[in-house]
UniProtKB/TrEMBL annotation:
GO terms for cellular component: membrane. The lineage of its organism: Eukaryota, Viridiplantae, Streptophyta, Embryophyta, Tracheophyta. It comes from the Eukaryota. Pfam families: Sugar_tr. GO terms for molecular function: myo-inositol:proton symporter activity. Belongs to the major facilitator superfamily. Sugar transporter (TC 2.A.1.1) family. It is found in: Membrane. This is Major facilitator superfamily (MFS) profile domain-containing protein. GO terms for biological process: myo-inositol transport; transmembrane transport. The chain crosses the membrane at residues 30-55, 67-89, 101-119, 125-145, 157-179, 185-207, 279-301, 307-334, 346-366, 453-479, 491-512, 518-542.
Length: 575
């Protein structure tokens, strides 16, 4: 997944999870009902990539202004940052169940605002509202599942939230394809997101509050009643005892930090050398996860397919299904391998694969741009002088223009009617001109140019996802759940999560501008450079935590210059 936590779970735990939930379906009902929050999260991440293609066609101002496209995409991320922060406070103040219900209402309202938006500003507001709900869900759903699950299968059940996130992304591409032939296209794509929120709201009304939250509020009898539905009768007393010990230990740790305020916790964390070293590792992997460019693929996948020369919206979205499916499959692979091969090793291998793919992808786009079809003056005036691109008419070097030259001037390329690789027309970027081009059975290009090697970009993007998903996709969240001392785990994890969201916002808000400035090849080469920096940071500053108890991780961080990995593995250097 691109934003959100993932719990580690091995194959044996999944097997026991299946057996336990088969005997006690109530447990799976809890997990899946709360996990719909992950589905909403994933759907919102994926749906905008296809909807944007049709938003641009309906609103010329969006088609012409790159910053407006980036804002529509990234406002959900901005809303999620605020939602996650407020969601943490709501979880503690009002409980997990009420927080999920509020998130559903917020998400539903945002979906409706987007679906009925009369102009782009309304879409931005709707995206901001939806993002707020996504941020709340990203904090609350895994927490609710974790606290309402038997300890022995907790990792497997929380992992269902991660699966539902990537599953939601895949479903969003399917729904995008389903609505391509309707008149309302993007309105239905964005509006249908409100339905899962309604389903979850109804399901959660009949489910209980987190037993841990109730116990902390001295509602012991209510907490016990819930545990009696989750555990066999002969285990309830033992679970109550463990819950009591855990809560008391947690309160003791909180008391050791200070007054419990966020400022006090952050100051306490930064004053500890051990926590600082943990934060270096945790923040590096979270920032590297985003700056390797993953959310350019998640948010702009069909657009990237159009960069590769696939002008048809339907074709671009169909090809994007491949990357979405591979991302979901990679999440499953990560769950089964992270405890076998270790966190650090998997991330290093993942980053190497990402860097290679990004460099090759840059090469493919460079070759495509270099061999773009040229512009023919007769073709360009075929639709009338008023239809020709103004910049092309006034250009002193118009004879040397090719398709990419035309697109860089915010104009459209109307391919040759006989063969799209032959010289074509450079036309003004308006609805009417686009309609004239298509009515002549010609292909209209606005993002990329016809390319004989465009299929290689699709292949390399698939390899990029295969490299990313099992490693950098999920392992940074696993590492951040293990790297901090118990009393600072929430604070450290929160700081690292904020760094992830902020990095996500920066990447999603600047991607199209970077493409305009550097070209697609230069942009992906830049992400390769960021990934190389991330690889260096992981190699020198991130320890191996596989198989270590929390106390052993803390001791590992105290060593400073040398991080020893577990179970006889070689030492790994760290600053």
């Amino acid at each position: 997944m691109v934003e959100g936590g993932a719990a580690k779970a091995d194959k044996a735990e999944f097997s026991e999870c299946w057996q336990t939930t088969w005997k006690t379906p109530y447990i799976m009902r809890l997990a899946l009902s709360a996990g719909i929050g992950g589905l909403l999260f994933g759907y919102d991440t994926g749906v905008i990539s296809g909807a944007m293609l049709y938003i641009k066609e309906d609103f010329e101002v969006v088609d012409r202004k790159t910053w407006l496209q980036e804002t529509i995409v990234s406002m959900a991320v901005a809303g999620a940052i605020v939602g996650a922060a407020i969601g943490g406070w709501m979880n503690d103040k009002f409980g997990r169940k009420k927080s999920i219900l509020v998130a559903d209402v917020v998400f539903f309202l945002g979906a409706i605002v987007m679906a009925v938006a009369p102009f782009p500003g309304f879409i931005i507001v709707g995206r901001l509202i939806v993002g707020f709900g996504v941020g709340m869900a990203s904090m609350t759903a895994p927490l609710y599942i974790s606290e309402a699950s038997p300890a022995r299968i907790r990792g497997a059940l929380v992992s269902t939230n991660g699966l539902l996130i990537t599953g939601g992304q895949f479903i969003s591409y399917l729904i995008n394809l389903a609505f391509t032939k309707t008149k309302l296209t993007w309105r239905l794509m964005l509006g249908v997101a409100g339905l899962p929120a309604v389903v979850q709201f109804v399901l959660m009304l009949s489910l209980p509050e987190s037993p841990r939250w109730l116990y902390r509020r001295d509602k012991v009898d209510e907490a016990r009643a819930i545990l009696e539905k989750i555990y066999p009768a002969n285990q309830v007393d033992e679970e109550m005892r463990l819950l009591h010990e855990s809560v008391e230990s947690e309160k003791t740790e909180e008391g050791a930090i200070g007054d419990g305020s966020i400022i006090a916790k952050v100051k306490g964390a930064l004053s500890s050398q051990v926590v600082r070293r943990g934060l270096w590792a945790g923040i590096i992997v979270q920032v590297a996860q985003q700056f390797c460019g993953i959310n350019t693929v998640m948010y702009y996948s069909p657009t990237i397919m159009q960069f590769a020369g696939y002008a048809s919206n339907t074709t671009a979205m169909a090809l994007s299904l491949v990357t979405s499916f591979l991302n979901a499959a990679g999440t499953v692979v990560s769950m089964l391998t992270v405890d076998r091969y270790g966190r650090r090793r998997i991330m290093i291998i993942s980053m190497i694969g990402i860097i290679v793919c990004l460099v090759v992808l840059a090469g493919v786009f460079f070759q495509s741009a270099s061999h773009a079809p040229s512009i023919d003056a007769l073709e360009s005036t075929h639709f009338g002088s008023n239809s020709t691109c103004p910049a092309y008419v006034s250009a002193p070097d118009a004879s040397s223009w090719n398709c990419m030259s035309c697109l860089k001037q915010k104009c459209g390329f109307c391919a040759n009617g006989d063969n799209e690789y032959l010289p074509g027309a450079c036309l003004d970027l308006t609805k009417n001109v686009r309609g004239e081009c298509r009515s002549n059975r010609r292909v209209w290009f606005t993002e990329g140019c016809p390319s004989k090697i465009g299929f290689l970009a699709v292949v390399v993007m698939g390899l990029y996802i295969i490299s990313y998903a099992p490693g950098m996709g999920t392992v940074p969240w696993v590492l951040n759940s293990e790297i901090y001392p118990l009393r600072y785990r929430g604070t450290g994890g929160g700081i690292a999560a904020v760094s992830n969201w902020v990095s996500n916002l920066i990447v999603s808000q600047t991607f199209l501008t970077l493409v305009e400035t550097l070209g697609a090849a230069g942009t992906f080469l830049l992400f390769a450079g960021f990934s190389l920096l991330g690889l260096v940071g992981i190699y020198f500053l991130v320890p191996e935590t596989k198989g270590l108890q929390f106390e052993e991780v803390e001791e590992l961080l105290k060593q400073g210059k040398k991080y020893k990995s577990s179970k006889g593995q070689k030492e790994v250097s760290a600053q």
